[in-house]
Protein backbone atom coordinates (compact mmCIF):
# COMPACT_ATOMS: atom_id res chain seq x y z
CA UNK A 1 0.00 0.00 0.00
CA UNK A 2 2.78 2.45 0.92
CA UNK A 3 4.68 1.58 -2.28
CA UNK A 4 1.67 2.27 -4.50
CA UNK A 5 1.03 5.54 -2.62
CA UNK A 6 4.60 6.70 -3.29
CA UNK A 7 4.37 5.51 -6.90
CA UNK A 8 1.21 7.47 -7.78
CA UNK A 9 2.30 10.53 -5.81
CA UNK A 10 5.63 10.45 -7.64
CA UNK A 11 3.90 10.30 -11.05
CA UNK A 12 1.92 13.47 -10.29
CA UNK A 13 5.07 15.22 -9.07
CA UNK A 14 7.11 14.21 -12.15
CA UNK A 15 4.42 15.20 -14.66
CA UNK A 16 3.94 18.54 -12.88
CA UNK A 17 7.70 19.17 -13.01
CA UNK A 18 7.85 18.25 -16.70
CA UNK A 19 5.00 20.64 -17.53
CA UNK A 20 6.51 23.46 -15.51
CA UNK A 21 10.24 23.14 -16.15
CA UNK A 22 10.18 26.10 -18.59
CA UNK A 23 7.72 28.24 -16.64
CA UNK A 24 8.95 31.58 -15.31
CA UNK A 25 8.17 32.34 -11.68
CA UNK A 26 10.19 35.55 -11.42
CA UNK A 27 7.18 37.83 -12.03
CA UNK A 28 4.10 38.48 -9.90
CA UNK A 29 1.82 37.60 -12.82
CA UNK A 30 3.64 34.30 -13.33
CA UNK A 31 3.77 33.33 -9.65
CA UNK A 32 0.21 34.37 -8.74
CA UNK A 33 -1.77 34.03 -12.01
CA UNK A 34 0.24 31.62 -14.22
CA UNK A 35 0.67 34.50 -16.73
CA UNK A 36 -3.11 34.29 -17.39
CA UNK A 37 -2.52 31.32 -19.66
CA UNK A 38 -4.62 28.43 -18.28
CA UNK A 39 -6.71 26.35 -20.69
CA UNK A 40 -10.26 25.29 -19.84
CA UNK A 41 -9.13 21.84 -18.60
CA UNK A 42 -6.60 23.42 -16.23
CA UNK A 43 -9.23 25.90 -15.05
CA UNK A 44 -11.81 23.15 -14.51
CA UNK A 45 -9.33 20.80 -12.82
CA UNK A 46 -8.02 23.59 -10.63
CA UNK A 47 -11.52 24.60 -9.54
CA UNK A 48 -12.71 21.07 -8.86
CA UNK A 49 -9.75 19.70 -6.99
CA UNK A 50 -9.07 22.89 -5.06
CA UNK A 51 -12.65 22.50 -3.84
CA UNK A 52 -12.63 18.72 -3.27
CA UNK A 53 -10.13 18.43 -0.46
CA UNK A 54 -9.66 16.20 2.54
CA UNK A 55 -12.08 18.34 4.55
CA UNK A 56 -14.90 17.56 2.11
CA UNK A 57 -13.90 13.90 1.60
CA UNK A 58 -13.62 13.22 5.33
CA UNK A 59 -16.45 15.50 6.45
CA UNK A 60 -19.13 14.57 3.92
CA UNK A 61 -18.56 10.84 4.32
CA UNK A 62 -18.79 11.31 8.08
CA UNK A 63 -22.22 12.97 7.78
CA UNK A 64 -23.44 10.40 5.23
CA UNK A 65 -22.46 7.73 7.78
CA UNK A 66 -23.97 9.41 10.85
CA UNK A 67 -27.05 10.93 9.15
CA UNK A 68 -27.96 10.66 5.45
CA UNK A 69 -27.31 12.01 1.95
CA UNK A 70 -28.55 15.51 2.80
CA UNK A 71 -24.91 16.61 3.03
CA UNK A 72 -24.52 16.12 -0.73
CA UNK A 73 -26.44 19.37 -1.17
CA UNK A 74 -23.24 21.34 -0.57
CA UNK A 75 -21.71 19.97 -3.74
CA UNK A 76 -24.74 19.42 -5.96
CA UNK A 77 -26.26 22.89 -5.45
CA UNK A 78 -22.85 24.34 -6.29
CA UNK A 79 -23.76 23.70 -9.93
CA UNK A 80 -26.39 26.47 -9.88
CA UNK A 81 -24.05 28.89 -8.11
CA UNK A 82 -21.15 28.14 -10.48
CA UNK A 83 -23.30 28.73 -13.56
CA UNK A 84 -24.54 32.06 -12.17
CA UNK A 85 -20.96 33.09 -11.42
CA UNK A 86 -19.87 31.99 -14.90
CA UNK A 87 -22.57 34.07 -16.58
CA UNK A 88 -22.49 37.27 -14.50
CA UNK A 89 -19.38 37.63 -12.32
CA UNK A 90 -16.51 36.21 -14.35
CA UNK A 91 -17.12 38.44 -17.40
CA UNK A 92 -17.01 41.44 -15.05
CA UNK A 93 -13.82 40.29 -13.32
CA UNK A 94 -12.02 39.67 -16.60
CA UNK A 95 -13.16 43.02 -18.02
CA UNK A 96 -11.76 44.79 -14.95
CA UNK A 97 -8.47 42.85 -15.20
CA UNK A 98 -8.31 42.31 -11.43
CA UNK A 99 -5.94 39.89 -9.70
CA UNK A 100 -7.86 39.50 -6.42
CA UNK A 101 -11.53 39.90 -5.47
CA UNK A 102 -10.66 42.67 -2.96
CA UNK A 103 -9.32 44.56 -5.99
CA UNK A 104 -12.93 45.02 -7.07
CA UNK A 105 -13.89 46.27 -3.60
CA UNK A 106 -10.97 48.70 -3.72
CA UNK A 107 -12.22 50.09 -7.02
CA UNK A 108 -15.86 50.17 -5.86
CA UNK A 109 -15.55 51.37 -2.26
CA UNK A 110 -11.96 52.58 -1.88
CA UNK A 111 -8.66 51.16 -0.57
CA UNK A 112 -9.82 50.97 3.05
CA UNK A 113 -12.54 48.39 2.35
CA UNK A 114 -10.24 46.46 0.00
CA UNK A 115 -7.59 46.13 2.72
CA UNK A 116 -10.18 45.27 5.38
CA UNK A 117 -11.63 42.45 3.27
CA UNK A 118 -8.11 41.21 2.43
CA UNK A 119 -7.43 40.96 6.17
CA UNK A 120 -10.71 39.08 6.71
CA UNK A 121 -9.76 36.64 3.93
CA UNK A 122 -6.34 36.09 5.49
CA UNK A 123 -7.85 35.54 8.94
CA UNK A 124 -10.28 32.95 7.57
CA UNK A 125 -7.47 31.10 5.80
CA UNK A 126 -5.21 31.09 8.86
CA UNK A 127 -7.77 29.95 11.44
CA UNK A 128 -10.12 27.83 9.33
CA UNK A 129 -9.23 26.81 5.75
CA UNK A 130 -5.58 25.82 6.10
CA UNK A 131 -5.86 24.15 9.55
CA UNK A 132 -8.99 22.18 8.57
CA UNK A 133 -7.30 20.82 5.43
CA UNK A 134 -4.22 19.74 7.38
CA UNK A 135 -6.27 18.21 10.19
CA UNK A 136 -8.54 16.22 7.87
CA UNK A 137 -5.51 15.06 5.89
CA UNK A 138 -3.84 13.85 9.09
CA UNK A 139 -6.98 11.93 10.09
CA UNK A 140 -7.15 10.31 6.68
CA UNK A 141 -3.52 9.22 6.69
CA UNK A 142 -3.62 7.84 10.18
CA UNK A 143 -6.71 5.85 9.28
CA UNK A 144 -5.13 4.55 6.06
CA UNK A 145 -1.64 3.72 7.28
CA UNK A 146 -2.26 3.23 11.04
CA UNK A 147 0.74 5.37 12.00
CA UNK A 148 -0.35 5.38 15.65
CA UNK A 149 0.26 1.64 15.77
CA UNK A 150 3.42 1.72 13.65
CA UNK A 151 5.09 4.49 15.66
CA UNK A 152 3.68 3.36 19.02
CA UNK A 153 2.45 6.90 19.67
CA UNK A 154 -0.85 8.18 21.04
CA UNK A 155 -3.46 9.62 18.66
CA UNK A 156 -2.80 13.27 19.62
CA UNK A 157 0.95 12.99 18.97
CA UNK A 158 0.40 11.18 15.66
CA UNK A 159 -1.95 13.89 14.40
CA UNK A 160 0.62 16.57 15.31
CA UNK A 161 3.38 14.78 13.39
CA UNK A 162 1.27 14.17 10.27
CA UNK A 163 0.03 17.77 10.22
CA UNK A 164 3.58 19.10 10.28
CA UNK A 165 4.78 16.70 7.59
CA UNK A 166 1.93 17.65 5.27
CA UNK A 167 2.33 21.34 6.01
CA UNK A 168 6.04 21.35 5.21
CA UNK A 169 5.59 19.38 1.97
CA UNK A 170 2.70 21.58 0.85
CA UNK A 171 4.56 24.78 1.62
CA UNK A 172 7.61 23.67 -0.40
CA UNK A 173 5.42 22.74 -3.37
CA UNK A 174 3.70 26.13 -3.35
CA UNK A 175 6.97 28.04 -2.98
CA UNK A 176 8.67 26.21 -5.84
CA UNK A 177 5.78 25.95 -8.31
CA UNK A 178 3.38 28.88 -7.95
CA UNK A 179 -0.22 28.78 -9.19
CA UNK A 180 0.51 26.91 -12.42
CA UNK A 181 2.04 23.98 -10.53
CA UNK A 182 -1.09 23.86 -8.39
CA UNK A 183 -3.38 23.92 -11.44
CA UNK A 184 -1.43 21.20 -13.29
CA UNK A 185 -1.41 18.86 -10.29
CA UNK A 186 -5.10 19.68 -9.65
CA UNK A 187 -5.98 18.60 -13.18
CA UNK A 188 -4.02 15.35 -12.93
CA UNK A 189 -5.58 14.56 -9.58
CA UNK A 190 -8.98 15.54 -10.94
CA UNK A 191 -8.80 12.65 -13.39
CA UNK A 192 -7.57 10.47 -10.54
CA UNK A 193 -10.53 11.33 -8.34
CA UNK A 194 -12.97 10.08 -10.97
CA UNK A 195 -11.17 6.76 -11.08
CA UNK A 196 -11.01 6.63 -7.28
CA UNK A 197 -14.69 7.52 -7.09
CA UNK A 198 -15.46 4.37 -9.05
CA UNK A 199 -12.89 2.05 -7.49
CA UNK A 200 -13.67 2.55 -3.80
CA UNK A 201 -17.46 2.03 -4.12
CA UNK A 202 -16.72 -1.01 -6.32
CA UNK A 203 -14.54 -2.68 -3.69
CA UNK A 204 -16.83 -1.50 -0.90
CA UNK A 205 -19.87 -3.12 -2.50
CA UNK A 206 -17.89 -6.29 -3.22
CA UNK A 207 -16.87 -6.49 0.45
CA UNK A 208 -20.42 -5.76 1.59
CA UNK A 209 -21.78 -8.52 -0.66
CA UNK A 210 -19.04 -10.97 0.45
CA UNK A 211 -17.55 -11.05 -3.02
CA UNK A 212 -20.79 -10.42 -4.94
CA UNK A 213 -21.07 -6.77 -6.03
CA UNK A 214 -24.74 -7.01 -6.99
CA UNK A 215 -25.61 -8.49 -3.61
CA UNK A 216 -23.70 -5.65 -1.94
CA UNK A 217 -25.62 -3.13 -4.04
CA UNK A 218 -28.90 -4.81 -3.09
CA UNK A 219 -28.00 -4.47 0.61
CA UNK A 220 -27.12 -0.80 0.11
CA UNK A 221 -30.38 -0.02 -1.72
CA UNK A 222 -32.79 -2.04 0.44
CA UNK A 223 -31.44 -1.87 4.00
CA UNK A 224 -31.50 1.33 6.08
CA UNK A 225 -32.90 3.35 3.23
CA UNK A 226 -33.23 6.43 5.41
CA UNK A 227 -29.51 7.04 4.77
CA UNK A 228 -30.23 7.38 1.03
CA UNK A 229 -32.42 10.44 1.54
CA UNK A 230 -30.96 13.81 0.45
CA UNK A 231 -34.08 15.75 1.49
CA UNK A 232 -32.90 16.78 4.93
CA UNK A 233 -35.33 17.07 7.84
CA UNK A 234 -35.14 19.77 10.50
CA UNK A 235 -33.02 17.47 12.68
CA UNK A 236 -30.44 16.79 9.94
CA UNK A 237 -27.22 18.80 9.57
CA UNK A 238 -28.58 20.18 6.26
CA UNK A 239 -32.37 20.75 6.38
CA UNK A 240 -33.79 20.94 2.86
CA UNK A 241 -35.06 24.48 3.35
CA UNK A 242 -31.51 25.79 3.83
CA UNK A 243 -30.76 25.01 0.15
CA UNK A 244 -32.87 28.06 -0.77
CA UNK A 245 -31.53 30.43 1.90
CA UNK A 246 -28.04 30.43 3.38
CA UNK A 247 -26.59 27.60 1.30
CA UNK A 248 -27.25 29.45 -1.96
CA UNK A 249 -25.52 32.54 -0.54
CA UNK A 250 -22.56 30.54 0.75
CA UNK A 251 -22.10 28.84 -2.63
CA UNK A 252 -22.37 32.14 -4.52
CA UNK A 253 -19.73 33.58 -2.22
CA UNK A 254 -17.50 30.53 -2.51
CA UNK A 255 -17.49 30.22 -6.30
CA UNK A 256 -17.68 33.93 -7.06
CA UNK A 257 -15.70 35.66 -4.32
CA UNK A 258 -13.44 33.22 -2.43
CA UNK A 259 -9.93 34.25 -3.45
CA UNK A 260 -8.28 30.82 -3.59
CA UNK A 261 -11.11 29.60 -5.86
CA UNK A 262 -11.55 32.70 -8.04
CA UNK A 263 -7.79 32.94 -8.56
CA UNK A 264 -7.94 29.68 -10.53
CA UNK A 265 -10.39 31.32 -12.95
CA UNK A 266 -8.74 34.72 -13.15
CA UNK A 267 -5.69 32.90 -14.57
CA UNK A 268 -7.65 31.61 -17.61
CA UNK A 269 -6.44 32.72 -21.03
CA UNK A 270 -9.86 34.09 -22.08
CA UNK A 271 -13.52 34.22 -21.03
CA UNK A 272 -14.43 31.25 -23.24
CA UNK A 273 -11.87 29.03 -21.47
CA UNK A 274 -13.08 30.37 -18.13
CA UNK A 275 -16.72 29.44 -18.81
CA UNK A 276 -15.81 26.05 -20.30
CA UNK A 277 -13.63 25.31 -17.28
CA UNK A 278 -16.48 26.12 -14.89
CA UNK A 279 -18.75 23.74 -16.85
CA UNK A 280 -16.11 20.98 -16.52
CA UNK A 281 -16.01 21.59 -12.76
CA UNK A 282 -19.83 21.35 -12.66
CA UNK A 283 -19.66 17.88 -14.25
CA UNK A 284 -17.12 16.91 -11.62
CA UNK A 285 -19.39 18.11 -8.81
CA UNK A 286 -22.25 15.95 -10.13
CA UNK A 287 -20.00 12.87 -10.13
CA UNK A 288 -18.28 13.65 -6.82
CA UNK A 289 -20.86 11.93 -4.51
CA UNK A 290 -19.27 8.63 -5.62
CA UNK A 291 -16.23 9.58 -3.54
CA UNK A 292 -17.70 12.09 -1.08
CA UNK A 293 -20.88 10.30 0.05
CA UNK A 294 -21.27 6.73 -1.24
CA UNK A 295 -18.36 5.33 0.85
CA UNK A 296 -20.10 6.70 3.95
CA UNK A 297 -23.32 4.94 2.90
CA UNK A 298 -21.49 1.66 2.41
CA UNK A 299 -19.80 2.06 5.79
CA UNK A 300 -23.22 2.23 7.49
CA UNK A 301 -23.62 -1.49 6.74
CA UNK A 302 -20.05 -2.45 7.72
CA UNK A 303 -19.21 -0.46 10.87
CA UNK A 304 -21.86 -0.62 13.58
CA UNK A 305 -19.99 1.93 15.71
CA UNK A 306 -16.96 4.18 15.39
CA UNK A 307 -15.48 6.16 18.27
CA UNK A 308 -14.46 8.89 15.83
CA UNK A 309 -16.84 8.86 12.82
CA UNK A 310 -14.52 11.29 11.01
CA UNK A 311 -12.32 8.23 10.35
CA UNK A 312 -15.03 6.39 8.41
CA UNK A 313 -13.54 7.02 4.94
CA UNK A 314 -9.93 5.95 5.65
CA UNK A 315 -11.08 2.96 7.69
CA UNK A 316 -13.34 1.78 4.88
CA UNK A 317 -10.60 2.23 2.27
CA UNK A 318 -7.99 0.30 4.25
CA UNK A 319 -10.52 -2.48 5.00
CA UNK A 320 -12.09 -3.12 1.58
CA UNK A 321 -9.47 -2.09 -1.01
CA UNK A 322 -6.54 -4.25 -2.17
CA UNK A 323 -3.23 -2.73 -0.98
CA UNK A 324 -2.34 -1.36 -4.44
CA UNK A 325 -5.73 0.40 -4.81
CA UNK A 326 -5.69 1.59 -1.20
CA UNK A 327 -2.33 3.22 -1.91
CA UNK A 328 -3.74 4.83 -5.04
CA UNK A 329 -6.68 6.30 -3.11
CA UNK A 330 -4.27 7.42 -0.39
CA UNK A 331 -2.32 9.30 -3.08
CA UNK A 332 -5.57 11.03 -4.14
CA UNK A 333 -6.26 11.99 -0.51
CA UNK A 334 -2.71 13.29 -0.14
CA UNK A 335 -3.08 15.31 -3.33
CA UNK A 336 -6.49 16.61 -2.25
CA UNK A 337 -5.00 17.90 0.99
CA UNK A 338 -1.96 19.49 -0.63
CA UNK A 339 -3.69 21.15 -3.59
CA UNK A 340 -6.20 23.02 -1.45
CA UNK A 341 -3.51 23.82 1.10
CA UNK A 342 -1.19 25.07 -1.66
CA UNK A 343 -3.95 27.12 -3.28
CA UNK A 344 -4.75 28.67 0.09
CA UNK A 345 -1.09 29.55 0.65
CA UNK A 346 -0.69 31.02 -2.83
CA UNK A 347 -3.88 33.07 -2.54
CA UNK A 348 -2.91 34.29 0.92
CA UNK A 349 0.42 35.60 -0.34
CA UNK A 350 -1.37 37.14 -3.36
CA UNK A 351 -3.75 39.02 -1.07
CA UNK A 352 -0.99 40.13 1.28
CA UNK A 353 1.48 41.29 -1.34
CA UNK A 354 -0.89 42.90 -3.87
CA UNK A 355 -3.47 44.37 -1.49
CA UNK A 356 -1.49 45.17 1.67
CA UNK A 357 2.29 45.12 1.22
CA UNK A 358 2.56 46.70 -2.25
CA UNK A 359 0.25 49.68 -1.44
CA UNK A 360 2.16 50.17 1.84
CA UNK A 361 5.54 50.38 0.09
CA UNK A 362 4.12 52.72 -2.56
CA UNK A 363 2.66 54.97 0.14
CA UNK A 364 6.08 55.23 1.76
CA UNK A 365 7.57 56.28 -1.58
CA UNK A 366 9.82 53.26 -2.02
CA UNK A 367 7.98 50.78 -4.21
CA UNK A 368 9.66 47.37 -4.20
CA UNK A 369 10.64 45.55 -7.39
CA UNK A 370 8.96 42.29 -8.41
CA UNK A 371 11.78 40.05 -7.18
CA UNK A 372 11.55 41.62 -3.73
CA UNK A 373 7.77 41.20 -3.65
CA UNK A 374 7.98 37.55 -4.71
CA UNK A 375 10.53 36.98 -1.95
CA UNK A 376 8.16 38.70 0.50
CA UNK A 377 5.28 36.53 -0.73
CA UNK A 378 7.27 33.37 -0.08
CA UNK A 379 8.26 34.52 3.41
CA UNK A 380 4.61 35.27 4.16
CA UNK A 381 3.58 31.80 2.95
CA UNK A 382 6.08 30.25 5.38
CA UNK A 383 4.68 32.35 8.23
CA UNK A 384 1.02 31.47 7.72
CA UNK A 385 1.95 27.84 7.09
CA UNK A 386 3.54 27.71 10.55
CA UNK A 387 0.47 29.34 12.13
CA UNK A 388 -1.87 26.87 10.43
CA UNK A 389 0.22 23.90 11.57
CA UNK A 390 0.03 25.10 15.17
CA UNK A 391 -3.76 25.63 15.04
CA UNK A 392 -4.77 22.48 13.12
CA UNK A 393 -4.39 19.80 15.87
CA UNK A 394 -6.85 21.57 18.17
CA UNK A 395 -9.75 20.98 15.76
CA UNK A 396 -9.90 17.52 17.35
CA UNK A 397 -11.87 19.08 20.22
CA UNK A 398 -14.80 20.44 18.15
CA UNK A 399 -18.30 19.06 18.60
CA UNK A 400 -21.25 18.37 16.23
CA UNK A 401 -19.10 16.96 13.43
CA UNK A 402 -15.96 18.25 11.81
CA UNK A 403 -17.59 19.35 8.53
CA UNK A 404 -20.45 21.19 10.24
CA UNK A 405 -17.85 23.04 12.32
CA UNK A 406 -15.94 24.10 9.19
CA UNK A 407 -19.06 25.45 7.49
CA UNK A 408 -20.31 27.22 10.63
CA UNK A 409 -16.98 29.01 11.16
CA UNK A 410 -16.93 29.98 7.48
CA UNK A 411 -20.11 31.94 8.17
CA UNK A 412 -18.07 34.56 10.03
CA UNK A 413 -16.28 35.41 6.79
CA UNK A 414 -18.10 34.30 3.64
CA UNK A 415 -21.61 35.78 3.45
CA UNK A 416 -20.57 39.12 5.07
CA UNK A 417 -18.05 39.63 2.25
CA UNK A 418 -20.53 38.47 -0.40
CA UNK A 419 -23.12 40.92 0.96
CA UNK A 420 -21.00 44.02 0.40
CA UNK A 421 -19.87 42.63 -2.97
CA UNK A 422 -23.52 42.13 -3.97
CA UNK A 423 -24.54 45.68 -2.99
CA UNK A 424 -21.50 46.95 -4.87
CA UNK A 425 -22.63 45.11 -8.00
CA UNK A 426 -26.26 46.28 -7.97
CA UNK A 427 -25.86 49.90 -6.79
CA UNK A 428 -23.77 52.88 -7.85
CA UNK A 429 -24.06 55.32 -4.93
CA UNK A 430 -23.79 53.21 -1.73
CA UNK A 431 -20.65 54.58 -0.04
CA UNK A 432 -17.65 52.90 1.61
CA UNK A 433 -18.93 53.71 5.10
CA UNK A 434 -22.00 51.54 4.38
CA UNK A 435 -19.74 48.60 3.43
CA UNK A 436 -17.70 48.99 6.62
CA UNK A 437 -20.77 49.23 8.86
CA UNK A 438 -22.38 46.32 7.01
CA UNK A 439 -19.36 44.06 7.57
CA UNK A 440 -19.15 44.87 11.28
CA UNK A 441 -22.91 44.49 11.79
CA UNK A 442 -23.04 41.12 10.00
CA UNK A 443 -19.99 39.58 11.70
CA UNK A 444 -20.87 40.77 15.22
CA UNK A 445 -24.52 39.73 14.94
CA UNK A 446 -23.62 36.32 13.55
CA UNK A 447 -21.10 35.82 16.35
CA UNK A 448 -23.77 36.61 18.94
CA UNK A 449 -26.18 34.06 17.40
CA UNK A 450 -23.55 31.31 17.33
CA UNK A 451 -21.56 31.94 20.51
CA UNK A 452 -23.88 33.75 22.96
CA UNK A 453 -27.58 33.33 22.17
CA UNK A 454 -29.09 30.04 21.01
CA UNK A 455 -31.95 31.03 18.71
CA UNK A 456 -32.66 27.41 17.72
CA UNK A 457 -32.43 28.47 14.07
CA UNK A 458 -30.08 26.73 11.64
CA UNK A 459 -26.96 28.79 10.98
CA UNK A 460 -27.67 28.81 7.23
CA UNK A 461 -31.08 30.41 7.84
CA UNK A 462 -29.42 32.95 10.13
CA UNK A 463 -26.94 33.82 7.39
CA UNK A 464 -29.82 34.47 4.99
CA UNK A 465 -31.67 36.65 7.51
CA UNK A 466 -28.53 38.67 8.22
CA UNK A 467 -27.90 39.03 4.49
CA UNK A 468 -31.32 40.67 4.04
CA UNK A 469 -30.90 42.89 7.13
CA UNK A 470 -27.39 43.97 6.13
CA UNK A 471 -28.47 44.75 2.56
CA UNK A 472 -31.31 46.87 3.98
CA UNK A 473 -28.92 48.68 6.33
CA UNK A 474 -26.44 49.43 3.53
CA UNK A 475 -29.20 50.66 1.20
CA UNK A 476 -30.55 52.92 3.96
CA UNK A 477 -27.10 54.43 4.52
CA UNK A 478 -26.74 54.85 0.77
CA UNK A 479 -30.08 56.67 0.68
CA UNK A 480 -29.17 59.02 3.54
CA UNK A 481 -25.53 59.53 2.60
CA UNK A 482 -25.01 58.66 -1.10
CA UNK A 483 -21.71 58.96 -2.94
CA UNK A 484 -21.55 62.42 -4.53
CA UNK A 485 -20.30 60.88 -7.78
CA UNK A 486 -21.75 57.48 -8.76
CA UNK A 487 -19.37 54.58 -9.25
CA UNK A 488 -18.33 53.97 -12.85
CA UNK A 489 -16.50 50.86 -14.02
CA UNK A 490 -12.99 51.40 -15.36
CA UNK A 491 -12.31 48.55 -17.79
CA UNK A 492 -8.84 47.03 -18.03
CA UNK A 493 -9.33 44.02 -20.30
CA UNK A 494 -6.21 41.83 -20.39
CA UNK A 495 -7.68 38.77 -22.16
CA UNK A 496 -10.29 38.07 -24.83
CA UNK A 497 -13.75 38.43 -23.26
CA UNK A 498 -15.78 36.81 -26.02
CA UNK A 499 -18.17 34.38 -24.21
CA UNK A 500 -18.59 30.67 -24.89
CA UNK A 501 -21.25 30.38 -27.59
CA UNK A 502 -22.92 27.12 -26.42
CA UNK A 503 -22.85 27.82 -22.69
CA UNK A 504 -26.63 28.14 -22.27
CA UNK A 505 -27.32 24.69 -23.76
CA UNK A 506 -24.83 23.01 -21.44
CA UNK A 507 -26.09 25.06 -18.48
CA UNK A 508 -29.63 23.73 -18.97
CA UNK A 509 -28.33 20.14 -19.15
CA UNK A 510 -26.28 20.59 -15.97
CA UNK A 511 -29.22 22.11 -14.06
CA UNK A 512 -31.48 19.25 -15.15
CA UNK A 513 -28.93 16.70 -13.92
CA UNK A 514 -28.68 18.58 -10.61
CA UNK A 515 -32.44 18.29 -10.07
CA UNK A 516 -32.44 14.61 -11.07
CA UNK A 517 -29.75 13.90 -8.45
CA UNK A 518 -32.05 15.18 -5.69
CA UNK A 519 -34.98 13.17 -7.08
CA UNK A 520 -32.84 10.02 -7.21
CA UNK A 521 -31.81 10.37 -3.56
CA UNK A 522 -35.26 11.14 -2.18
CA UNK A 523 -38.46 9.31 -1.11
CA UNK A 524 -39.48 9.54 -4.77
CA UNK A 525 -36.38 7.55 -5.73
CA UNK A 526 -34.00 5.31 -3.78
CA UNK A 527 -35.16 6.37 -0.29
CA UNK A 528 -38.71 5.02 -0.59
Description:
This protein is 73% helix and 0% strand. It has 24 helices and no strands. The radius of gyration is 22 Å and the shape is globular. The model has no long low-confidence stretch (mean pLDDT 85). Helix 14 (271-287) packs parallel to helix 24 (503-520). It is mainly α and 528 residues long.
Summarize, please.
The chain has about 525 residues and is an all-alpha fold. The chain contains 24 helices and no strands.
**Number of helical elements:** 24
Number of strands: 0
Q: Point out poorly predicted stretches.
A: none
Structural class comes to: mainly alpha
The share of residues in extended strands comes to under 5%
Instruction: Summarize the biggest pleated sheet.
Output: none
pLDDT averaged over residues: 85
Helical content class: over 70%
Query: Which sequence of SSEs, written as H and E, runs from N to C?
Result: HHHHHHHHHHHHHHHHHHHHHHHH
- Rg from Cα: 22 Å
What is the approximate shape?
Answer: globular
Termini separation (Å)? Answer: 39 Å
Oligomer category: single chain
